[in-house]
Amino acid sequence: MRLKAILLTLGLTALIGHGIAHAQSPAELNDLEIAHVAYTADNIDIRYAHLAMAISGNTEIREFAATMIRDHTAVNEQALALLKKLGAQPQDNFLSQTLQKNAEKLVDEMSGLRGAAFDKRYAENELAYHKAVNNLVENAFIPNIENAEVKALFEAGLKIFKAHEGHAAMMVAKTK
Amino acid sequence: MTVRIERRAVLSGAAAVITVAALGLQTGKPTKGADRSPRKHVVEIKNFAFVPSNLNVKIGDVITWINRDIAPHTATTTDRSWDSGTIKKDKSHRVAVTAEMAGSYFCRFHPHMRATLEVSAIPH
Q1: Domains of chain A
Q2: Which residue out of A42, A60, A61, A70 would a mutagenesis test of the B interface target, given it has the greatest number of B Cβ atoms within 10 Å?
Q3: What is the dihedral of CA A148, A154, A155, A158, to 10 degrees?
Q4: Residue A43 pLDDT greater than 70, yes or no
Q5: In this structure, what are the phi and psi dihedrals at residue A70, rounded to the nearest 5 degrees?
Q6: Among partner residues A66, A78, A163, which is closest to B48 by beta-carbon distance?
Q7: Cβ-Cβ contacts under 8 Å, A70 against chain B
C-alpha cells in the first residue's frame, strides 16, 4: 500500500489534499516520534478492546478483544522498557494527535451500537485499523528508524500486528 | 597454534557432550536402557508458530514449551481438555505427556497457531 493509501485508511486526508509538508510526513518522524505514534496506536486499540468487552456478548469477539489488550499491553511494556534503557522519552507529534482525534470519533460511534451491529463494526474496524497501521509501520516507519534496538522492536511488533490482522479478518468473516 | 586448535577441539567436544546430556537430546545412537526413561522434548513458540509443528512422543515423555515471542501464548488441545495456561515472553511450561494430549492443539489467544502431538500408547 502506498503512503497516500495508508493515510486515507487512517483518515489523515488533510495531509493529502495539501501535500505532505516535511514536518508533517510520517516518513519524516524521528525515532522518538515514531515510538510515540506506536504507543498511541497500541493504546487506541486497547481502548477499542475495552469497549468491546463492555458491550459485546459474543464470546469470540470478547476473546479477540482480550487478546488485543494482552498483546498490545505486552508490546507497550517492551517499548517502555527499551525507552527507559535508552534514557529516552517518546515525543508527541501531529500523527499521534490525529490518530487520537479519529479514535475519539470512532469510540463515540461504536458506543451507540449494540449486539451484532457492534460486533460487525468492531471487527471491521479492527481489520482496517491493523491493516493501515501495519502498512505505516512496514513502509514508513521501519525503513526510517535509526536506532537498531528500536527497529528490532518494531519488526517484532509488526509480526504480532500482522497476526492480529489475520485474526481480525477471521472475525469479520464470522460477524457478516 | 596446533596445540590451541587441539585444545579448542577437545573443549568444544566436551561442551557438546555436556549440552546434549543436560538437554536430554537424542544423539541418534541408542544407549542401553534409554528406551525406559522418559524423553525430553522442546517446542519453541516463535513468530506465532509452534516449532516443531508436529511432534512424536510417548506417554510419560516431558514436553517443554518456550515462548520466544513478545505476545503471550498458550498450548491448548482443540477440545480444551488440557491447557498450558498463559506462557509469557521467555517463560516456559513443562508437562508430562498423557494419552489425552494426543491430536491437534492451538494457542487460545491466536487460534490460527496450530500444531500436532502424536502420542504413542506404549509408555516407556
Answers
A1: 2-175 (1.20.1260.10)
A2: A70
A3: -170
A4: yes
A5: -60, -50
A6: A163
A7: 71-72, 109
Amino acid at B13: G
User: Is the per-residue pLDDT at B45 higher than 80?
Assistant: yes
Whether the complex's predicted ipTM surpasses the cut of 0.85: no
The string of pLDDT tens digits covering residues A51-72 is 999 999 999 999 999 999 999 9
Residues in Cβ contact with A18 at an 8 Å cutoff, skipping those fewer than 6 apart? none
Q: B43 in the Ramachandran plot: left (φ > 0), alpha (ψ -120 to 50) or beta?
A: beta
For residues A6 and B52, the model is more confident at B52
Q: Does this model's pTM top 0.90?
A: no
Q: How far is A23 from chain B (nearest CA, A)?
A: 32
With an 8 Å Cβ cutoff, the interface of chain B facing chain A consists of 47-48, 69-72, 88-89, 108-112
